[in-house]
Every structure is written in C-alpha cells, then in structure tokens.
Design a protein that fits this description.
single chain, 157 residues, alpha+beta, 3 helices
C-alpha cells in the first residue's frame, strides 16, 4: 500500500481521530453500524499515511501490543462475537522470526493472574497484514476481513 506523505501534525491528528473513534467501544463489541463506518473511514485515512514502508520487516513491529478495537467484516459475526464473551485485556506480543514471518503469543489477564499462551498448539490459520505501523500504534487487517487497532504497551518494547 503506497502511503502519501504526511506531516507529524497530520499523523497526530489522524491517530487522535482513530483513538477517539474506537474509544468506549469495548474493543468493538459496543458499536453501531454508523460507528463502525466512522471508525473505518478514520482508519483508512490513517492507513493512507503509513510512515512504515514495510511493517513486517520493521523493528517497530516487535513488542507488546494492547487491542483497542476489532471488527469483523460481516454483521452476523459482530453479533455472535458480542454474545457472552468473558475476557480480560487482550495483548499481543510479536517478534519477527525471519523476513515476512512473525511469531505471536496470546496474552490475557484475569484479575491478578497473567497468562501467556503460545499459539502453536492451536495450529492457527490465517494472516493479518499490518497496514499502519509507528512507534505507538499498529493497525492490521485479517484475511477474513477483520480489522485490528492496537497500541504499544507503555514502557514495554
């Protein structure tokens, strides 16, 4: 995806718009169709200014990321996902293995108990393309049409 040049203040405004749009959505579970459209427009504007030419090859992709928002492509998936899910803060730890390959671990926290779960046993299938990446924010799109907005955990690389 070719990015257009943007000034630091342009990026700051675009990122603030995305953060504002995804705020108070309970990571995407509490959104209306109109809100999801607004979020998508804000994310697409940010993606158009991606400052990182090759996100998966960038050192910036390594680190601990907190999920702020996720959205499936189909409305039925959104309804199903919102029904009865009990979860703590969702985090992702990424570390590049080789160019084009990334190892991921799921991390969840329930009360004081923090669990790190290697995902290899589940034999996950699918992919997520990082469409925006900088020091603080990462946006990705999955092979099934999902959208993920994450921010780097403060003080953790």
């Amino acid at each position: 995806m070719a990015a257009r040049a943007a000034t630091g203040s342009d990026l700051a405004e675009l990122k603030a718009a995305v953060l504002s749009a995804v705020g108070n959505t309970d990571r995407g579970r509490k959104t209306s169709v109109a809100q999801r459209r607004s979020i998508l427009r804000a994310v697409e504007a940010l993606e158009a200014c991606n400052p990182t030419a090759s996100p998966v090859g960038s050192e910036l992709i390594s680190g601990n990321w907190s999920l702020l928002y996720t959205e499936p492509i189909r409305e039925g998936d959104a309804k199903q996902r919102r029904e009865g899910a009990l979860e703590g803060p969702v985090l992702s730890r990424l570390r590049p293995l080789t160019a084009g390959a990334v190892r991921s671990k799921g991390i969840t926290q329930l009360g004081l108990l923090k669990l790190t779960i290697p995902l290899g046993w589940a034999k996950p299938k699918g992919w997520v393309e990082t469409t925006y990446l900088d020091e603080q924010m990462r946006v990705g799109r999955g092979d099934k049409g999902s959208l993920f907005v994450t921010v780097r955990q403060r003080g953790k690389q």
